[in-house]
Design brief:
about 110 residues; alpha+beta; four-stranded antiparallel β-sheet; 4 strands; about 25% strand; globular
């Protein structure tokens, strides 16, 4: 499965990571997914900026991974959300995966 990876440097310490996984293995569809990314290397983004649109070639499996890195190390993103935002994100996750209990996935 091919994916499109976006990294946004917040500052010298923090980076957010978005992995768009449209669940396709065809070159033309992954090129279309790359074209659906609206930001480019060197762009400045702010809260609310659309960074891209997921093209779900397999409606059941397409998804976006979100992560936070602290000095290059994966950390649980849940602590970076307000309580109400964390609850909203958890509700969204649970709508597609009822087994999700928190915003952190351990490897």
């Amino acid at each position: 499965v091919l994916q499109v990876n976006i990294r946004i440097r917040i500052n010298d310490r923090y980076t957010t990571v978005y992995n768009f996984e449209p669940f396709t293995a065809t070159a033309s569809e992954i090129e279309a997914q790359e074209s659906a990314i609206t930001i480019h290397a060197g762009d400045y983004v702010s809260q609310g900026t659309l960074i891209g649109t997921l093209l779900p070639y397999s409606a059941d499996d397409a998804h976006i991974h979100f992560g936070v890195k602290d000095n290059g190390v994966d950390v649980c993103p849940e602590t970076y959300f307000s309580a109400s935002d964390a609850a909203a994100m958890l509700s969204l996750f649970q709508s597609s995966s009822s087994s999700t209990e928190n915003l952190c996935v351990t490897q």
